[in-house]
Specification:
The complex is a heterodimer of chains A (381) and B (551). By secondary structure, chain A is α/β, with parallel strands linked by helices. Chain A is 31% helix and 20% strand. The longest helix of chain A has 15 residues. The model of chain A has no long low-confidence stretch (mean pLDDT 89). With 551 residues, chain B is an alpha/beta fold. Chain B contains 22 helices and 20 strands. In chain B, helix 5 packs across helix 9, helix 9 runs parallel beside helix 10 and helix 10 packs parallel to helix 11. The two termini of chain B are 47 Å apart. The model of chain B has no long low-confidence stretch (mean pLDDT 87). The chains are: A alpha/beta (381), B alpha/beta (551). Chains A and B meet through helix 6 of A and strand 7 of B.
């Protein structure tokens, strides 16, 4: 079976593509599994499905990646490693084997006698699996059972669609590879590696970086397609966003398919810098959605406006957005286009890309001084 | 979905070490002596597939009755620690539900399936501690401290809503009014109607109720109800109850020739239930369980019902219990699942035996199957003689010692022995040598030499070609012995003719010829009855003596 990876930028309609394929190809004999990384996006996919069929057909299943690992790959065969039923997952903020800079004792994968160590994979109750190590656990079970859980998966699903595939990392790719080897299951992954936000620094297994991931897909024999259309944002926004990853990989210049700007919004279209002192006036005038780094950023300012943290906003689209910028983002706007180059991870660069691509008609950055990037103009009240 | 195998532990008749029960994909005829656990198998399937015990939710039916007696006694004799509390486990190993595949089962197999487990609820440990403070006062299994769980082998929670299979248990006794009659009938009706039929019934029923309120007479009655507004300021009215939960299921009822279903004959009730379930328009039933379909049915109606089951079971798995050889033979004896000391299926029985028994379903195969010791004889006079010999020797009839005497009649010994050889029942075959002992007995029994529980008894003297010659010649040691035999075996009239014979040889010839020719068969039976009833002893041929001796 040919497996496909579609790499497309923000607003290319990736989720719409997978939902459309899922509904078109699901039959009683060909159940379809729609996977995604975040809970928010699961809701998004369900909404898209229901927009077409009102009720999700039983043959189309939507699961989060961790739930998928637990329900379909781990639990059916967990007896080969752990006897107590793993009831749930435990979301880790950081590597559970580390406390700050200190590695915790007793977390090695194997115990002295050679048996698997529950504390490597599970919380102390032994009924919850750490999300950091859950795909490793799934891989171990696949190894021990000589692929029994993949075999089982293939008996249930003929088509597996993965949205936001850029968020998979390390051991997740071992699972992708194992599924990709099946001739009787088709895999379609869609994603935008510029939007990888969960590049968890504590995940040490490759692939981790954008280029390693693309390489992994190539090695696994995926047919990789690129799409550069953007149905969401107007061309000036596309152009600005493209600059964030300029020179990296073969990203083609994005082409806006956003169409005509509605008349009542046409007075303010494009990319703008807003001085800190003008922000209140700007908010009053255009009521943009505010994007901020964390919940505690500029609390007072955000009062009364729709506000999202950077990470939350992924997958969403708004008419207008105002970004409460970070220092690096300001440096970039001021002309230091290499400001992200020395970073250990792609996170800061990708986050900037995500927030820059949320708006359909206008995106503004809080910025004092003169922007030296083409296409960014200073807004004055 | 098909159940390939059940593991049952500590549930009713099944103890902790019960063997897995394997099943046929199509029909399973569960047979066993009384109290052998036939119904328990059906109940275990119902519990595991529907989370119901005899039609009611397990949560309400969790009593000590569900537990194996032995395991309760073991618990009562134990120190009663938390770990001494027995658990019920029922695992169904199935095919056709890939979602339920996994290795979370006691056999450790990578297969599809699901299980129900009834176990001590650890949350109640403090209360249990209190309960066993004086362990000697604990006289019963404290099921109040139990919980249950229902999982697939993939270790996913099952619920009545997410399970992908449906089982229906037909048990005519559930029609009893105290047994939630309406719901039981509805289960059956539901399987007989498809979704759109059900919706239409419901809609029409609600409309009917709405029109009731608008009937002129009803309106008039309601006007008069509180005409003076004395009773209430509000508008009082009697209306049909059209709340949404009062749907057709609880208000409509099945009738046959305008008689309410629970008032028609028991036999007809049973037949209609089974046939409705089998017709199964909704196509939702994977597994059908029928408890003793022969109950309340005449032979002709049973024949029709069995025929119906045979042609309509396509696409679903049927489990039925029976005490009827006819049901067993007709549905095919190779579908037999025998519960006894162990569990045996007859799925490897010879095809020609299956076919013969199916074509001639009137034979008592079930008696042979169920008797742990059996004496097979050729005809009714052999049966009488064997019983007489047995009575003289053991001072009781064979049945009293669990030994069944079965007359093989037309289909001969072969098919019976083909059944028995798979089961290991101790079988004594009493067979005529028909004048050639070495060919008809020694040559014949050679086929069964590997089955040491099958033994053949026959006179080795070729002159003793069948029962009557053997009796005559055994008693022909001298005139007196033969005369006393003839006096018992012959009617008074015939004996007078016999007396005219002038030598021992002539007497023997007379007696032997007497049974040959027209009416010979009934003469043999008459003789046998007279011998059976006689007080005076006759000389018994040695092979008969041996045949009634069991080690």
């Amino acid at each position: 079976m040919t497996n496909t990876l579609i790499v497309a930028g923000a607003g290319a309609g990736k989720s719409t593509t997978v939902v459309g394929k899922a509904l078109a190809e699901a039959t009683d004999r060909r159940k379809v599994l729609l996977l995604t990384y975040t809970e928010g996006n699961q809701g998004e996919l369900l909404t898209k499905v229901c927009a077409k069929t009102s009720v999700r057909p039983a043959v189309v299943r939507i699961k989060g990646w961790f739930t998928f690992l637990l329900e379909e790959l781990i639990r059916p065969y967990q007896g080969c490693i752990f006897e107590t039923r793993i009831d749930n997952i435990l979301f880790d903020d950081s590597d559970p084997h580390w406390n700050g800079r200190f590695r915790l004792r007793g977390r090695a994968e194997r115990l002295k006698g050679g048996a698997y160590n529950p504390r490597h994979f599970l919380a102390s109750s032994q009924t919850r699996a750490h999300t950091t190590y859950i795909s490793k656990l799934a891989c171990r079970i696949i190894e021990i059972t000589r692929g029994a859980s993949i075999e089982r998966l293939a008996r249930i699903y003929r088509l597996i669609l993965i949205d936001e595939v850029q968020d998979l990392v390390g051991w997740d790719y071992e699972i992708l590879k194992a599924i990709a080897e099946r001739a009787d299951v088709e895999l379609l992954c869609v994603g935008d590696f510029r939007q990888t936000l969960y590049t968890t620094a504590h995940a040490r297994k490759a692939p981790g970086s954008m280029s390693e991931k693309l390489g992994a897909f190539q090695t696994a024999g995926f047919d990789i397609q690129y799409s550069n259309s953007n149905r969401r944002s107007v061309q000036p926004i596309c152009r600005f966003a493209d600059r964030i990853h300029e020179g990296l990989f073969k990203f083609q210049p994005s082409r806006s398919l956003a169409g005509q700007v509605p008349e009542d919004l046409a007075d303010h279209v494009g990319v703008f810098a807003v001085r800190a002192e003008d922000v209140s006036a700007y908010l009053e005038r255009y009521s943009p959605v505010i994007l901020r780094r964390t919940r505690s950023t500029e609390i007072n300012l955000c009062q009364g406006y729709r506000t999202y943290n950077y990470g939350e906003s992924k997958g969403m689209g708004f008419d207008r957005a105002l970004v409460l910028t970070t220092g690096k983002q300001r440096d970039f706007i001021s002309g230091k286009s290499d400001v992200f180059d020395g970073d250990k991870t792609d996170k800061a660069r990708n986050t900037f890309y995500v927030v820059a691509t949320r708006a359909r008609y206008s995106v503004s950055f809080v910025f004092d001084g003169n922007p030296s990037i083409d296409g960014v103009s200073v807004w004055t009240p | 979905m098909i159940i390939k195998k059940l593991v049952i532990k500590n549930f009713k008749k099944f103890n902790q070490v019960s063997v897995p029960l394997e099943f046929n994909d199509d029909i399973n005829i569960i047979v066993g002596d009384n109290e052998s656990g036939k119904s328990t198998v059906l109940e275990a399937i119902e519990l595991c597939t529907n989370l119901q015990y005899r039609g009611r939710a397990l949560a309400q039916e969790l009593t000590t009755d569900l537990f194996n007696h032995g395991c309760i006694e073991k618990y009562l004799a134990s120190p009663k620690a938390q770990t001494d509390l027995p658990e019920i486990l029922i695992e169904a190993y199935v095919e056709g539900c890939p979602d339920h595949q996994g290795t979370n089962n006691t056999l450790g197999e990578d297969t599809e399936g699901f299980f129900i487990r009834v176990f001590f609820n650890e949350d109640l440990a403090p209360a249990y501690q209190e309960f066993i403070r004086d362990p000697d006062r604990v006289k019963t299994l404290p099921v109040e401290f139990y919980a249950f769980e229902w999982y697939s082998f993939a270790w996913k929670h099952l619920s009545p809503f997410n399970k992908q299979f449906k089982a229906l248990f037909i048990d005519p006794t559930r029609l009893h009014p105290t047994f939630g009659k309406a719901r039981y009938i509805n289960n059956i009706l539901e399987s007989a109607l498809d979704q759109s039929d059900r919706s239409k019934l419901n809609l029409n029923f609600r409309q009917l109720k709405a029109t009731f309120d608008e009937e002129d007479e009803v309106v008039a009655i309601n006007k008069g109800l509180d005409a003076e507004d004395e009773i209430s300021d509000k508008n009082l009215k009697i209306t049909a109850d059209i709340t949404s939960n009062a749907s057709w299921e609880s208000n409509l009822q099945l009738t046959a020739d305008n008689i309410a279903f629970n008032h028609i004959g028991k036999g007809e009730q049973a037949q209609i239930q089974i046939k409705l379930a089998l017709a199964n328009k909704a196509n939702g039933v994977d597994i059908l369980m029928v408890e003793e379909p022969e109950n309340h049915l005449s032979h002709v109606n049973l024949a029709r019902l069995v025929e119906f089951i045979e042609c309509k079971n396509e696409g679903r798995q049927v489990f039925l219990t029976t005490h009827s050889s006819y049901v067993l033979n007709k549905l095919s004896i190779d579908k037999l699942c025998l519960l006894g000391n162990g569990y045996i299926r007859l799925n490897s029985i010879e095809a020609d035996t299956v076919k013969t028994i199916k074509r001639l379903p009137g034979y008592d195969t079930l008696r042979v199957v169920l008797a742990s010791k059996v004496i097979l004889v050729e005809g009714p006079s052999d049966e009488l003689l064997v019983k007489k010999v047995f009575l003289d020797k053991h001072k009781c009839l064979p049945e009293a010692l669990g030994i069944d005497v079965v007359v093989v009649r037309g289909i001969g010994f072969k098919h019976y022995l083909n059944v028995v050889k798979h089961l290991g029942n101790i079988s004594h075959v009493i067979k005529d040598n028909d004048g050639d002992y070495s060919k008809n007995i020694e040559g014949w029994i050679a086929d069964y030499v590997e089955y040491d529980f099958i033994k053949c008894f026959s006179p080795s003297d070729n002159e003793h070609r069948s029962l009557e010659p053997a009796l005559i010649r055994s008693n022909a040691t001298d005139d007196d012995t033969l005369d006393s035999y003839a006096k018992i075996a012959l009617s008074t009239q015939t004996y007078k003719v016999y007396e005219t014979c002038d030598s021992l040889e002539a007497k023997i010839t007379f007696l032997e010829n007497w049974y040959v020719g027209d009416g010979g068969a009934s003469k043999k039976v008459d003789s046998a009855i007279r011998i059976f009833d006689a007080q005076n002893p006759i000389v018994i041929p040695t092979y008969l003596e041996e045949a009634v001796t069991f080690d």
